[in-house]
Write a structure and sequence with these properties.
8-stranded parallel β-barrel, 23% strand, alpha/beta, single chain, 22 strands, 7-stranded mixed β-sheet, M1 Pyruvate Kinase, Domain 3, 474 residues, Pyruvate Kinase, Chain: A, domain 1
Length: 474
């Protein structure tokens, strides 16, 4: 795999076997996403075990991403599978537990009738269906169908213009989080983030559980991408995901592309990885080839500067999961070949107040262009150096060496990073010899090649990166 932007694949019924997961890794998957809106803990535990086993066999680190369901409002069970609602129909949403039909359905959010008013808009099925609230009576919300469609059990609802008091994490999310930390997931994605306090709250929970997982804030609410909240959320999180499914319901559709570009630029400025997700190759859940518009969508995400692109239903339940993954990689590789200039042209945007490590990483990316080096080698214990050097998209490979397995896995999300387990030791001469042996044994460098090393000195201090060294491989 020669692409720099990483591919995230959602594992589901179409790909939850050893052979399929092995093939996805060989195709370029570097992050495996588990959607906790579906499946039981036992099912997820099995997938985690398989991913770890296949990753070890192939000697390719793969990060595991736990995607929490969040406070998604859904319909309850619908009798006879599905029903069709037509424009002009009256449809009732109730907080009573009942089996729904084409006139009425229960909802999972018990405060719905208390928090909506006549005139509010409710979307269903990712914005395909539109309801208008006409009146509220006790536990029942009466709606007029504006845009019809087919309803089914557990269909999601969106209320873009209604401020709800739903918690950022449900009781289910907390149980799932405890399970994920026990299974040593590498990333936790928090759904429906409203402001930075949601991320801070989750970080405290992870710390209390003695976990090392990093946090991905999913940007899918209009409130989250507002000028007031966007930067604080990015600063509080370790990465962000542009979840365009719900975001495309929260915002007018024509605003989503501009929002995507804004989020990517802000994430770049704050040195946080950004993932573009949802419906990237959606047609490949059924067809063996994507639409031309989908190919352009993936390419434009790479042109915008995305660190990773994600497949959801395409690999979780689609008919052609491997073709979808391989198609994604081909699009990314071709797009990256067309990008002549990287972000190393933006020195003026690096303020003097930026951390020393960030300045050093920027300098390393500039030196890599002008000195003809073969690679940048980042030694890191926390992953911070890897994240900073990734930000500047250097034109040479980035090899991330860490003595911590979870940092090795987590660094696989970073643009251009190839991470490896490596014990530092206390003496620089021994460290260099062992580094040379590792890179030569993997045929990543040759004798006589020049590389740039980023590390913290003295080694015994285990401090932050403070040194750039130009080294020739002997």
């Amino acid at each position: 795999m020669s692409n720099h932007a990483k591919m995230i694949c959602t594992i589901g019924p179409a790909t939850n076997t050893p052979i399929r997961i092995r093939q996805l890794i060989q195709s370029g998957m570097r992050v495996a996403r588990l959607n906790f809106s579906h499946a039981a803990h036992a099912d997820h535990a099995k997938v985690i075990r398989i991913v770890r086993e296949e990753s070890n066999k192939l000697k390719v680190p793969v990060a595991i991403l736990q995607d929490l369901q969040g406070p998604k409002i859904r319909l309850g069970k619908i009798a006879e599978g599905t029903h069709t609602l037509r424009p002009g129909d009256t449809f009732i949403l109730t907080t009573h537990n009942l089996i729904g039909n084409r006139q009425i359905a229960s909802v999972t959010y018990k405060k719905l009738a208390d928090e909506v008013s006549a005139g509010d808009t409710i979307f269903m099925s990712d914005g395909i269906m539109e309801l208008k609230v006409t009146r509220v009576r006790r536990t029942d919300v009466y709606c007029k169908v504006i845009q019809g469609g087919i309803i089914g059990s557990h269909m999601g609802l969106n209320l873009p213009n209604t401020r709800l008091s739903t918690p950022s994490m449900t009781a289910k999310d907390k149980r799932d989080l405890a399970f994920g930390i026990k299974m040593k997931v590498d990333y936790v994605a928090l759904s429906f983030v409203r402001d930075a306090s949601d991320v801070i709250r989750l970080r405290k929970m992870i710390k209390k559980l003695h976990g090392s997982a990093r946090i991905i804030a999913k940007l899918e609410l209009a409130m989250a991408v507002s000028a007031e909240h966007l930067d604080p959320i990015i600063e509080a999180a370790d990465a962000v995901m542009i979840a365009r499914g719900d975001l495309g319901v929260e915002l007018p559709l024509e605003e989503v592309p501009m929002s995507q570009k804004t989020i990517i630029q802000h994430a770049f400025t704050l040195a946080k990885p950004v993932i573009v997700a949802t419906q990237m190759l959606e047609s490949m859940t059924i067809h063996p080839r994507p639409t031309r518009a989908e190919v352009s969508d993936v390419a434009n995400a790479i042109f915008d500067g995305a660190d990773a692109v994600m497949l959801s239903g395409e690999t979780a339940r689609g008919k052609h999961p491997l073709q979808a993954a391989r198609t994604m990689v081909r699009i990314v590789e071709r797009t990256e070949r067309a990008i002549a200039r990287r972000h190393t042209s933006t020195l003026e945007h690096l303020p003097e107040t930026a951390p020393v490590t960030e300045h050093l990483c920027y300098s390393a990316s500039i030196l890599a262009q002008h000195l003809g080096v073969k690679a940048i080698v980042a030694f890191t214990e926390s992953g911070t150096t890897a994240r900073y050097i990734s930000k500047f998209h250097p034109r040479v490979p980035i090899y991330v060496l860490s003595p911590k397995h979870h940092v090795v896995n987590q660094s696989q999300l970073f643009w251009g990073a190839q991470s490896m387990f490596f014990r530092r030791g206390r003496h620089s001469e021994a460290l260099i010899r062992r580094m040379e042996h590792l890179l030569l044994s993997k045929k990543l460098v040759s004798h006589g090649d020049r590389i740039i090393m980023l590390l913290g000195m003295p080694l015994s201090s285990h401090g932050p990166t403070n040194t750039i060294k130009i080294h020739t491989i002997h």
